[in-house]
Amino acid sequence: MHAAGALLTIDLQAIRANWRMLQARVGSAECAAVVKADAYGLGAAQVAPALAAEGCRRFFVAHLDEGIAVRPGLPQDATVCVLHGPPPGAEGEFVAHGLVPVLNSRAQVDAWRALAHRHDRELSAVVQVDTGMARLGLSPVELRALAGDAGALRGVRVACVMSHLACAEQPEHPANEAQRGRFIAARRCLPAAPASFANSCGIFLGGGYHFDLVRPGAALYGIAPIAAAPNPMRPVVRLQGRVVQMRSIEPGTPVGYGHAWRCERPARIATVSVGYADGWLRAIGESSAAAWVGDVALPLVGRVSMDTITLDASALPEGALVPGALVDLIGDRQDVDAVAARAGTIGYEILTALGSRYARRYLADVAAP
Ligand SMILES: *Cc1c(COP(=O)(O)O)cnc(C)c1O
């Protein structure tokens, strides 16, 4: 820990508690876990097995590579679904690694059926339909053509029919109900199978959105799933930066690149070893974000550098902050969503941008309070 410039603490117990909470919320539906992008930057190798230990049995990743990496750490009876489906020619990898593809296009359906034919057995797949995002999934035209072609799914065991919401973080958005209606209609064109529709925000749109399987990611990691209400999820991440140097400066002294900030009064500046290379985005520096030492907020001043930020530490008594000390950048006082809002982005981007330079500490064995 002494060697590290900054410390990232990831509370696996909180992630497990968040999954339990969501599972309870969806009642008889099943709660999966989306662990793509290295579990939103928090470490899929740690997060996925922790959720499996909590009882989660279905996991979603985006890329085939991610599925290959996460599968060996999970119990045999867990299912790993790959959202992007097989890249052309890579269908065999899914069988070799025990992964279930999400089939998003007629081409992916055809390639999967051909593989099933070669193996001379049924192969499971999730079929995604596009209900209003124009991103992934069978288009309405493709779906109609598929429904009219009796042999199109021969050998494909449809384990699940899924779609994805475009505007779920805005509960009043009319697209939510429109997509739900199209999803219900689309299911009738496909073999009877469990249905999956809701991401984190979708779960909070109500029971009509739950269907058989929900796919939360963000909420598991503590990101608020409802914008207009207090965050019901437990916080997961604490980021602490280490003070490298303290200095006192005279009024008018410019600080950092571009001399973008000058102090008006005598000030004490703390240089902390977290920068944009660590995912502390440059845009955060131009915001009202702060670092915290106990209850005291220290404003970020000047531009974010690659390896450092500078704080105005004048609110603390001289000598209170010394090189080696840790300051809180994400934590009780300023959660992921608050940092994101100040930087003009979303919590998802803050988490997935977290750098690889942090010393990472996983809280696994601490009993939930
Ligand atoms: C990323 C993703 C999710 C998880 O979304 P959250 O908003 O993080 O809960 C669910 N489904 C699909 C298709 C996704 O791409």
Give a written overview of the molecule.
The protein is 28% helix and 23% strand. The chain has 369 residues and is of the alpha/beta class. It folds into two domains: 12-221, TIM Barrel, CATH 3.20.20; 237-334, Lyase, Ornithine Decarboxylase, Chain A, domain 1 (Beta Barrel), CATH 2.40.37.10. The strands form four sheets. Strands 1, 11, 14, 15, 16, 17, 18 and 19 form an eight-stranded mixed β-sheet that branches. Strand 7 (123-128), helix 7 (140-147) and strand 8 (156-162) form a beta-alpha-beta unit. The longest helix has 14 residues, at 12-25. Bound molecules: pyridoxal-5'-phosphate. Residues 34, 36, 83, 164, 199-201, 215-219 line the site of pyridoxal-5'-phosphate.
Strand content: 15-25%
Helix content: 25-40%
Low-confidence stretches: none
C-alpha Rg (nearest Å): 24 Å
**Assigned CATH superfamily of the largest domain:** Alanine racemase
- Assigned CATH class of the largest domain: Alpha Beta
SS content category? alpha/beta
Bound molecules: pyridoxal-5'-phosphate
End-to-end Cα distance: 26 Å
Number of strands: 19
CATH topology of the largest domain: TIM Barrel
The count of helical stretches stands at 12
SSE arrangement:
Layout: E1 6-11, H1 12-25, E2 30-31, E3 33-34, H2 36-40, H3 44-54, E4 58-61, H4 64-70, E5 79-82, H5 91-97, E6 100-103, H6 106-119, E7 123-128, H7 140-147, E8 156-162, H8 174-187, E9 195-196, H9 200-203, E10 213-214, E11 237-249, E12 254-255, E13 261-262, E14 267-272, H10 282-285, E15 290-293, E16 296-301, E17 309-312, E18 326-330, H11 336-342, H12 347-353, E19 359-363
Parallel strand pairs: 1-19, 2-10, 3-4, 4-5, 5-6, 6-7, 7-8, 8-9
Antiparallel strand pairs: 1-11, 11-14, 11-18, 12-13, 14-17, 15-16, 16-17
